[in-house]
Design brief:
The protein is mainly α. The protein has one domain. The protein contains six helices and two strands, in the order ββαααααα. Strands 1-2 form a two-stranded antiparallel ribbon. Helix 3 runs parallel beside helix 5.
């Protein structure tokens, strides 16, 4: 997750920041319906940066716990994936692209299950069998 801008130690995730900008741009287009898109975009470039506005600070402060929890879950999944990839590489060697993609699609709980199961793997076929049995 890419974090942009900061207010009081809090930051908006890129997706949330883009959503805020989209809403604001839509509002400007409706509010200034006599202006062309180019004129509205020029006006946007001359405005105070979003991160410096009071509304932005309020949005971040109100929603920071939600985004923080989402970021933690994404970080947990990424860390689990990296650990599983390293363990599998050490246990059975390189992975195919298909195996890699299937593992990336697993939720954290299944990654944890795979982490335990791979201790019994001897070949890539064992991994394939496990992945087949745990398809979503």
């Amino acid at each position: 997750m890419l974090w942009l801008g900061g207010v009081n130690g809090y930051v908006l995730p890129d997706l949330a920041r883009r959503h805020c900008l989209d809403v604001f741009q839509s509002w400007l287009l409706v509010r200034f319906n006599d202006l062309t898109l180019e004129e509205v975009l020029t006006m946007l470039g001359e405005l105070t940066p979003l991160e410096q506005t009071r509304a932005y600070r309020e949005i971040v402060e109100k929603n920071q716990p939600i985004w923080f929890a989402e970021g933690q879950e994404e970080g947990r999944q990424s860390e689990a994936q990296q650990l599983i990839f390293r363990q599998l590489h050490r246990r059975i060697g390189g992975l195919t692209e298909a195996q890699h993609e299937q593992i990336k699609a697993l939720p954290v709980e299944q990654l944890e299950d795979l982490g335990e199961a791979l201790l019994d793997f001897a070949t890539a076929a064992d991994l394939d069998a496990w992945l087949s049995a745990h398809r979503q």
